[in-house]
Structure formats: C-alpha cells, structure tokens
Amino acid sequence: MEATRTAKILTVVGARPNFMKAAPILTAIRDNNEGVIAPVHATGSQDSKIALKNVLVHTGQHYDEAMSDRFFSDLNIVRPDVHLGVGSGSHAAQTAEIMKRFEEVLLKEKPDLLIVVGDVNSTLACALAASKISYDASGARPLIAHVEAGLRSFDRDMPEEINRILTDHVADLLFVTEESGLRNLREEGISSEKIHFVGNTMIDSLLAFKHKAEQSSILNKLGLRGSGSPNGSANGAARYALLTLHRPSNVDQRETFLNILEGLAGLSSLCPLIFPAHPRTQKRIAEFGLDRFFVRDSGVQRDAASVCTNDSGRILMIDPLGYLDFMCLMQHAAVVVTDSGGIQEETTCLGIPCVTIRENTERPITVRVGTNVLAGTSKEGIRKATLQQLESKTARGVPDGWDGKSAQRILDVICNEIRKKRAS
Ligand code: UD1
Questions:
Q1: By the 8 A CB rule, do 12 and 57 touch?
Q2: For residue 392, what are the CA distances in angstroms to 267, 268, 283, 373, 395?
Q3: Predicted confidence (pLDDT) per residue in 363-422, tens digit
Q4: What are the pLDDT tens digits along the chain (424 aa)?
Q5: What are the beta bridge partners of residue 82?
Q6: Which of 69, 48, 55, 59 is nearest to 13 (CA)?
Q7: Phi, psi of 185 (to 5 degrees)
Q8: Which of 88, 148, 363 to mutate to test the pocket of ligand 1 (most atoms within 8 A of CB)?
Q9: Ligand 1 atom nearest 68 alpha carbon
Q10: Residue 222 C-alpha to ligand 1 middle, in angstroms?
C-alpha cells in the first residue's frame, strides 16, 4: 500500500526554448495541488488526486539575463529550487558536466518522475543520467517523461536531432505535439503504450500570454507604431519583418552567413527588418566582419520615420528580447524569418507568414497546415521566399491539440502512470 499520495516530480529547464515549454506544466502542477482536497493518508481510488511536489532544476546552459532570467519573470515561473550553473562549453563538456551535477540531484531528491522538454543538450543530459541511475539495490529509478517527443529533421548533423532521438529512446512517457511525431516514434519501434499525443505546451504559453504581450512597449521603443503605413498591422503598427538566426549551420561559417545576409537584402530594402540577435550570432558578426549589413539599435527611442527611412536597407540589430516583447513583435510582423524550431510553431498559431532558413524541418505540420515555408539556405531561395511571404495573405489552420490545454493532458497521463507504478 502506498504510504502517502504525494509524488515527487523533478522538472528540468536549461536553455531559452525550454522555459515556455515547461511553464504551463508548472502551472498545471500547481493547479493540480490546489484541487487535492482528500486527506494525504486516505487510500485512493483510481480517480483520486495525487499531490505533486515539484522540484525545478535549472542546468544553467543559458545564463544571461536576456537568455534566461527575463523568461522567469515574463512567464511567472518560480525561481529554480536547484541551479547547476554549468554554463557554456563544447557539446561533450557541457553534456558531461550537466550529467555529473544532475546525478547528484537525482540521488538526493529521488523523484518518482523526471520531466525534460525539447531537444537541447540539457534535455538529453538529464534524461540519460536518469535512465542509468539506481536509487537503491532494487534498481529503482524515476520514470522519464519527454515533452515534445518524436520530432525528426532526419538531419543528423544537427545536434538537436541527436538529442531528440536519444532522449526519446530512454524515455518512458513520450508526449507528442504533432502527428509526424507519432509516425516517427512507431517507425523507430517505440511501444505505442509509451506514446501520448497531447498537443503543444509552447502554444499553451503563447495563448496564455498573448494578451499580456500586447501591453509591451517594444513597438514604440523601436519606432514601429503609428507610422500610418497602409500595409501595417491592424493595431497601427508599421509594416516590418522580424528575423532570428542562431543555428551553427547558418552562422558559424562566414560564407554561409554572408549568403543568407545577401539573400535578405531584398526584404530589408522593402521594410524595416528587426533582428534580436543571439549572443552566438553577435560574436560571429564581429568575428567575420559582417557589421556593414547591420545598424545597431542605439537604445534611444526611435520614431517611425527614422526606422523606415534612415537605415538604407540595413538590418536593425538589437539584443535578445524577453518572451513578451518578442511575442509582441511576432504578432504584428508582416513576415517572420527564422532558423528556430519554436518560432515556426508560434507563427503558425498566430497566422503570421514565416520563412524558415533551413533545408529541413522537424515540424512539418507548420508547412502542411500552418504558415511556414522552407526557403533553404541559397541566396535566391531566401530572396524569393521572403518576398513572396511578405505579400502572403492566406489564412491557414492551427494543428490539432494546439489549444492551450496540453499541459493539463500531460498531467493527467503523469498522475495515471504514477498510480499504476505504485499499484504494481
Ligand atoms: C541552444 C540549443 C538550441 C536552441 C538554442 C536557443 C543545444 C544543442 N542547442 O543553442 O537547440 O535553439 O539554445 O537559444 O542545446 N551564450 C551566451 N549567453 C547565454 C547562453 C549562451 O553568451 O546565456 C553564448 C555562449 O558563447 C555559448 C553560445 O552562446 O557558447 C552557444 O550557447 P549553447 O547553449 O551552447 O547553444 P545555443 O547556440 O544557444
């Protein structure tokens, strides 16, 4: 018989794209606990609630205010209970350091279940450490839940693809965001009992914070509001495009990066192109002497006339933004150009045309159902796709299950699995 009906969950975050995927799960855990009214020592029926104690672990893979701390306040996430402080390093060094430090946390906390999200090095490192741990002589270890399982680009040169495959193959519960994920996991021989289609927790965050993001002052700061442009968005924002680029395959080689920037020249001559640049990308721009393509935001509030006319087709580079400011910029953009995974999904949900500067995507639903177009990385491909998408007015659909309720579905499955494990 179970001694109590409290279970311990350990949730891991590490890098920027993890925060918005984990936040709704943390909220669902809190909501679950508020709904637990039965006394702790009562023996429960299958339907009885389990009180969940969550321990939030931050690996420290991302550590800057702009890459990490800001997201905790924007998304109302509680401070981490444990911070591993690993910082940057080569893939091997970073992954190994997370594993070493995380193993100690597992042995101290002995959670019933571990939640990892996405496909970053922290995701794999923590899942791998948990898969080999044993709390005692019986070999007990936590159940491993992977949120955003099954996505495949079929490009093993991407570090994230290796992280996805390996994490899925050590996980016990695989939470899938789109139908391609179900197919991929079945084709890799993963038992269907472990696979759960739940939708997309990143979209839970988007829907929860969409309204709050409207209150951001970023459009005013960048001089993007009130230009009176006939092509601007409904709330009076000017017509502008938004850019993000950080994939090593796009920015780590001068020739490739230069090609991409030349491909974007057509777009930046037609409207302001706003570029919140990842630290890796900022370093490469300086290293490769590519500054001539950019104008730096001076931090001084700009007016609409200056942003539209004074930059002579150059890209307006700013520092990375927090969640709410970035979402506000995304919601009002005429087109978003990116090599990020998550932004392909967010633009699909918002109905904003998206151009992805990659040869492939692990999120094919964003192309099939959503607003995303794959441009590849050639100059001509980028030029054509960005100009076409700038004029695109086609309303597209939102994928199944991207409805703001994914975290709740995940929690229902988790509670059931914990009950089953305790009953066995
Ligand atoms: C990581 C993820 C990637 C995700 C991206 C989002 C992996 C393999 N990659 O890539 O999937 O899309 O995060 O941002 O996990 N740096 C800072 N400050 C920070 C963090 C990083 O300056 O807070 C710089 C460091 O120089 C570091 C470099 O950025 O070496 C890269 O950081 P890293 O976490 O290694 O990978 P990302 O490129 O951010």
A1: yes
A2: 14, 17, 33, 11, 9
A3: 999 999 999 999 999 999 999 999 999 998 877 899 999 999 999 999 999 999 999 988
A4: 444 589 999 999 999 999 999 999 999 999 999 877 544 444 444 456 799 999 999 999 999 999 999 999 999 999 999 999 999 999 999 999 999 999 999 999 999 999 999 999 999 999 999 999 999 999 999 999 999 999 999 999 999 999 999 999 999 999 999 999 999 999 999 999 999 999 999 999 999 999 999 999 999 999 998 654 445 555 678 899 999 999 999 999 999 999 999 999 999 999 999 999 999 999 999 999 999 999 987 665 565 555 554 567 899 999 999 999 999 999 999 999 999 999 999 999 999 999 999 999 999 999 999 999 999 999 999 999 999 999 988 778 999 999 999 999 999 999 999 999 888 8
A5: 57
A6: 59
A7: -65, -40
A8: 88
A9: 23
A10: 26
Q: Are 298 and 317 in contact (CB under 8 A)?
A: no
Question: Which atom of ligand 1 approaches the CA of 118 most closely?
Answer: 11
Q: Is the CB of 62 under 6 A from ligand 1?
A: yes
Closest ligand 1 atom to residue 279 Cα is: 22
**How many angstroms does the Cα of residue 232 sit away from the middle of ligand 1?**
33
Among all residues, which ones are annotated catalytic? 246
Q: Find out whether the beta carbon of 13 lies less than 6 Å from any atom of ligand 1.
A: no
Radius of gyration of the chain (CA): 22
Residue 196 β-bridge partners: 175
Give CA angle at 339 (129, 198), nearest 5°. 55
Pocket test for ligand 1, best of 20, 84, 278, 361 (most atoms within 8 A of CB): 278
The residue contributing the CA closest to ligand 1 atom 18 is: 64
C-alpha span between 240 and 331 (Å, rounded) = 11
Structure tokens at 387: 């100009």
Report how far ligand 1's centroid is from the alpha carbon of 87 (Å).
9
For the record, the structure tokens of 56 come out as: 């939030």
Nearest atom, ligand 1, residue 64 CA: 23
Report whether residue 116 contacts ligand 1, using a CB cutoff of 6 Å.
Answer: no
